[in-house]
Each structure stands twice: as C-alpha cells, then as structure tokens.
Amino acid sequence: MDTLDFVPGPMPKYTPDRDLIGYGENPIDIQWPNGARIAVSFILNYEEGGEHHILNGDDRSEAYIWEKGGESTEVLNGRHLMSESEFEYGSRSGSWRLIRLFKEFGWPMTLYAVGTAFKKNPEFARACVRDGHEIANHGLRWVNWATIDDETQIEMIKKAILMLEEASGEAPVGAYIGRGNIRTPELVKIAHDQLGYPLLWESDCYNDDIPYWRDTEHEKDLPDDEKNGLLMVPYNYVNNDYKFVASSPGPGFPGAFVYEDYLKNEFDQLYREGGRMMNIPMHSRILGKPGRTNALRNFMKYISEKEGVWVCNRRDIANHFKTNFPYVPGKLAVKKE
Fold first, then answer.
1. Taking a C-beta distance cutoff of 8 angstroms, is the pair 133, 325 a contact?
2. Beta strands, E only, 167-229
3. How many other C-beta atoms are found inside a 10 Å radius of the C-beta of residue 153?
4. pLDDT tens across 230-248, in order?
5. Distance CA 175, CA 11 (A)
6. What is the DSSP letter of 201?
C-alpha cells in the first residue's frame, strides 16, 4: 500500500485530530471593539525561580533560554552560577523595567506566570494585578511536561492555579503551559472544572491569527446544550524574544534593530488585513535587558501612532470572541444572531 494513501483509524491515545483547514480562504470578521483593525497582545513569560534547579530538588540547574544559550552548558548534580544569575536578572531587574514601560504607555499585558516563580516574588505578582495586567497559568514548574501522565498534569495545573491566586490575588482564567504534550489543553480544562474555577481561554497552539473553538474529548458524550468547548487563543514563536538567545541553528534576532523591524513588518501586514491578532511574547531575563527594552519601546511608540489598534490582554480577546461567537459544537466559530 502506498503510504500516501494510508488513512489511519481512530487513535484515542493521540486525540484530538489535526485540523489543517481552519477558517480557509475567508476567515470570519471578528469586528474588534470600537472598529479596531487589529488586537495586539503583549505576553510576559514569567519563569524565574520555577526552572530546573538543584535547590528545587532537580538533578540539574537550568541552561535553557539564557544569554549563552544551549543545553550543552547544562550542569548536572550541581549549581550553574551564570545561568542562575541570568534568571535572577529577570526577576530582580528586567521584570520591573518592563512593568515601568507598560505603565508609560498605559497598556495591559498578560503574564504567563509559573506558579512557583510567582510564589517566590509576590511583590511583583501583586504589582502586576495592581497595574491591570492579566495573570495566566504557565504551569507549576517551568520544566518539560511532555512525558508526564494525565493525572499528574491535572494535579500540577490545579496546584499552579491556587498558587498563582495566592501570590497575586487573582485566579487565572487562561493558560499556556508551553512545555506540555498533545493532551495538555484538555487537561487544563479538566483541572479548572475539578476546582470549580472558570476557564475562559487556552493558548497551547500556534495555528492561526484569530481565536477558534475546539470540542473537548471529556465532553463528547454530553448533550450539546451541556457542552462548553475550549476557546483557543493562538500564540506564536515567530515574535518570541527567545530568538535573541537561541543557539541552534542560530539567533533569529541577532540585534535589537532586527527584532524591532520584524515586529513592525508583522504588525503592518496584519493591520492591512484587518480582523487579526498579533502576539508579542516576552521574557523578563531577555527583553528586560536595556537595549532590547528600548527596541520594544520604539515598536510600541510606532503602533501607538496608528488608528484602530486595540492593545489588550488575552482575557479581553476571549471575552469579546465568546460574546460574539458563542460555542457551537463542531464549529470553529458561528456569529451570534
């Protein structure tokens, strides 16, 4: 049999199925608030203190996503002075620099916050809520979840929700675990249901420029009017500042000017198309460095001078979408009558 003609049967272990079609040639018209042409979502990944570390009971100290980059510098069964210092820069200095920048513009952002990281810096956690930023769940620890079983993931997600609420004063209504597996988005929904905490959105996907609904496996046997679905607000890596420190195949943003220029180009294209969202992923220990923060500021000034730009958090995007396109089982989005 030609492998190109082979269509496998159901594979429950690997659900959900893939969707290679999406909205197709004619995406829905989202109609952002006040006639905005684009929704811009700034996201700060706050991980410092939640990474691999001997003092956290791990067998290594983290060497992933820092200035020298690459796991080849990893230290097993010991401390890693330079990597530790880079992470500390994020929590001690870079995070506050970015908070001040967003206060300057009066714009909100979403925090992808690791539970144990926020617990170790409650002053920053509270400042984020004070300044109107959204707290979202980035997991209990910033470690690889790919081989963790479902039940353990669910318990870790629930612990993270409660930890983030305690540290910041705000319970997350959205999540991006980031280092999970194909089951993780569904497990996030199950964890919220078990706690009785609402889940508004999930962002463990990179497959679109606009939100969409997906059905959930654990609701498949319920009557349609009892299903809630899972609202996906897509994220991306293309604008992720981690490219400043990526070691293989090489940095995607060798200089701050390249980063600034790319952001402007992506913004211009999405703005021209209209009805899209733009993700700008950030890290305190990376974009919180002075020269890169200045490049981000230049971009923020650039879009602040455009008409019809809605800078918002992901909760705002999800609420707008859910109001105008309520969940209909089996559909990506159906306009409310």
1. no
2. 174-175, 201-202, 212-214
3. 23
4. 999 999 999 999 888 875 4
5. 26
6. E
